[in-house]
């Protein structure tokens, strides 16, 4: 069936697949953020000390969000879904 499609239809299907992959990945990040927020609220209510003695500061934060951005792009824009 895919062999009979013209190039425009194939391109549209690939683009839609990439968008759907990105939306699914981003939805997972949002759900994970919600679960971590609930877990941190439980720790705060129980007065559990989360200090690990390690601070990465702003450079660690930028590196973490850079990795998140890369993985989002990797699983959406640069994915090889056909």
Total tally of structural domains? 1
Main pleated-sheet profile: none
| Helix/strand order, N-terminal first | HH
Low-confidence stretches: none
> Mean pLDDT, as a whole number?
84
The end-to-end span amounts to 13 Å
How many helices in DSSP terms? 2
Description:
The chain has helices at residues 7-45, 57-74. It has one domain. The mean pLDDT is 84. With 82 residues, it is mostly helical. Helices cover 70% and strands 0% of the residues. The protein is built from two helices and no strands.
What's the helix and strand layout?
Blueprint: H1 7-45, H2 57-74
Task: Write a compact overview of the structure shown.
The chain is mainly α.
Salient structural properties:
82 residues; mainly alpha; 2 helices
């Amino acid at each position: 069936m895919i062999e009979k499609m013209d190039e425009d239809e194939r391109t549209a299907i690939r683009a839609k697949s990439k968008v759907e992959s990105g939306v699914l990945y981003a939805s997972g990040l949002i759900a994970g953020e919600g679960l971590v927020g609930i877990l941190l609220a439980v720790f705060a209510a129980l007065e559990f000390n989360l200090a690990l003695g390690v601070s990465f500061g702003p450079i660690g934060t930028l590196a973490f969000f850079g990795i998140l951005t890369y993985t989002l792009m990797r699983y959406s824009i640069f994915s090889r879904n056909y």
